[in-house]
Amino acid sequence: MPRPLCLLFDCDGTLVDSEPLLADEMSSSLTEAGLPFRTSDYMGEFRGARFRRIVAALEQRYGSVDPERLDALECRMRANLNRRLASELIAIDGAAEALAALSHHPMGVVSNGPENKIRTSLDATGLSAMFGDHLFSAYTAQCWKPDPCLFHHAASRMGFAAEECVVIDDAMVGVRGALAAGMTVIHLNRFPDVEQTPAGAIMISNMFQLPTVIAHLETSRALAAHA
């Protein structure tokens, strides 16, 4: 009997509903720095992307920002965001129920965000106990989605091969990175009217569906092992 699949979750937009708060703080900070940015720009064009990649794209359009000013802006933005996450953040509908149903699986969080932001988000929503120290930040690994190396890093630290891992992610950068890593991918597509699930990924529209999908994957593995 194969051991249980290792489940690797994205954080923002998959486990916690932090993206509206993040988009709001980015809009205020970047616009103040001379890089016009609306909350809808994050949700439409940059969802899940690394902050500095967003800045680089905006600088190509609107001109460069002094690096020292940008560093100070990012520090202030992240401090404001962490305060709001601690007091305003809620979990994605069905996330707590799905994690409870899947608690017999090894689970980790793989995020493009800083580790302190991941911890703040999970603590604020009561989800941190499900993951312990299995939190894998791109800032710690120095490797950002959609590069598959962040997923390989997480799998290695968890002690699993890529084919034993299932990634659950809502953003295209994560879905594409996990597919490139050779992992099974479940796309939490909360915006099916405007977003298409890539070929090779399994689509769900809410987290309540996740335990059933994982159960089907486990059954298929068990049958293959006995074939």
Description:
InterPro entries: Beta-PGM-like, HAD-like_sf, HAD-SF_hydro_IA, HAD_sf, PGP-like_dom2. It comes from Halomonas pelophila. The structure is a single chain. By secondary structure, the protein is α/β, with parallel strands linked by helices. Helices cover 50% and strands 11% of the residues. It has ten helices and six strands; from the N terminus they run E-H-H-H-H-H-E-H-E-H-H-E-H-E-E-H. It has a six-stranded parallel β-sheet with strand order 3-2-1-4-5-6, with helices on both faces. The longest helix has 22 residues, at 67-88. The protein is elongated and about 60 Å long. The model has no long low-confidence stretch (mean pLDDT 94).
List the helices and strands and how they pair.
Layout: E1 6-9, H1 19-32, H2 39-46, H3 51-62, H4 67-88, H5 95-101, E2 107-111, H6 115-125, E3 135-137, H7 138-141, H8 149-158, E4 165-169, H9 172-180, E5 184-188, E6 202-204, H10 210-226
Parallel strand pairs: 1-2, 1-4, 2-3, 4-5, 5-6
Helix pairs in contact: 1-2, 1-4, 4-6
Provide the helix percentage: 40-55%
Computed over alpha carbons, the radius of gyration is 18 Å
Number of strands: 6
Give the N-terminus to C-terminus distance in angstroms.
12 Å
Return residue spans where pLDDT drops below 50 for at least 5 consecutive residues: none
Look at the structure and give the mean pLDDT. Answer: 94
Structural class assignment:
alpha/beta
Strand content: 5-15%
Q: Count of helical segments?
A: 10
Sheet with most strands: strand arrangement: 3-2-1-4-5-6
Most strands sheet: 6 strands, parallel
What gross morphology would you assign? elongated
Element pattern in H and E: EHHHHHEHEHHEHEEH
Protein name: HAD-IA family hydrolase
Cofactor: Mg(2+)
Organism: Halomonas pelophila
Keywords: Hydrolase, Magnesium, Metal-binding
